[in-house]
Amino acid sequence: MNSSVAIMKRKIIYTILLVLVLTDVGYSFLQHYNTPFDGDMAAGIVPAEDVKPTLESPFGLKVFKEEITYPNPNRFFCHWIFYQYFNNIPLFLQRYMNPIDSAYMSCALSKTVIQIAILVLLSIAISGNTNIFRLEFILAAVLITPLFQTNGYRSDMGIIDPSTTYTFFYALPTALLLLYFAPLILIHHYNKGLKRFKYIKVLWIPFALISSLSGPLNPGIALVFSLLLFTQNILKNIEKSGSSNILNKLKYALQLIPKDYIFFLIPICLFSLYSLFLGRYNSVDHNNEMSLTQLYLRLPEGVYNQFTQKLGFPVLFSVLLINMIIINSKFKTEEGKKILRIFKWIGLFALVYTLLLPIGGYRGYRPNVLRYDMIIPITLSLMFIFGKTTIFIIKNISYIQKFWYLPLIILVMFIFTNSDEPKFDKNDCERMAIVKIVESSESVVKINDNCTVLAWSKIEKPEDSKLKVQLLELWGIINEKKLYYQ
Fold this sequence. Notes:
2 strands; globular; 2 domains; two-stranded parallel sheet; mainly alpha
């Protein structure tokens, strides 16, 4: 009887937690659906002339064959997925809704699916469970779901960008990288025997290439992560060596590196190095306005501004500090020590990654080097360790102690949930402007609204709307040649 009551209790708790997750994801979907189009969409979907070379050369070999430079030669898979998705899905959805709604719906669906993918992969990494019906998995999902900020603290710690284009170039590649490393984490951190993985293991080498040629962050993340994993393993193996000779110790440590480390890390490191080399032929922002020294001098200000200007990161840092103090003072078990070590390595990863960011060069939209999209791997690492430490403490503290600890965690989740304002009217102005373009009988339509329309800023010259109008034609929103201006 007690066993059946316990099972029923777990099912009820699981159901409540699942409803919370689905509600939050549904809320995010509505926010995404009501977000305006961004100014880069037309260039990537029509596509613009300077994007075509990227789509024509999957591995960037065009830069060597034709001895040319062009935008993003090492980001083919982002461009290709983005291009294919928005050349097909909006048209498919028009079977069920009008063309304008289908375009906004396509944006919302892509962002939500990418958000769910990252949520699931992070929850697997936190819980060590691939079974989404396990209580620990759904608890991990509940803890980190509010940290996905669509509005609120998005400008500091956003994962899913308001810009659909940026989501495909930052969040999506990050999801690919999380998926790539997921088996390695499960095998070596959780000692999970992935029996079915052996049937698809051969796909992981081409997957390494795809991940490396997707997005601007992946090569750097993969190289830093791999370096730290190798370093951690070598240091651990050196401690086991009984030899007093340094060279013998190192040789012994290298021999003990698991074969899975070699299989997962070497290919992606090689492909990442190739991606970075290919990036030297990127024609975008080839001439930096600032020297490397100037960028490093700006880095401290960038770090300070990024992590202190809004409440999000300070709250997350505070609860992590509390969690670490609790584990260090109360639960220095083998598992507790393991979590503390992970936290230290995450700190080292964040430090090394941040110090490498200035090498990427100057961009006007991130004058102090850091921006929320550039620090996605750091943000996700903090979300991971928040979920990991919180679940560990909940599992180990006494029933009485839960009465003061759980309200603290609920308060943290409430702060993030409350900050993420709905803003369901963000694209109303743009929608009305597009409707005006559709309904106008003029070949050049004047729009009186101040909002952006498929652009980063107001379009003041009709000829600047040419590519935007081509996208509206592609989506079947307009059926005749038009231009517009504001």
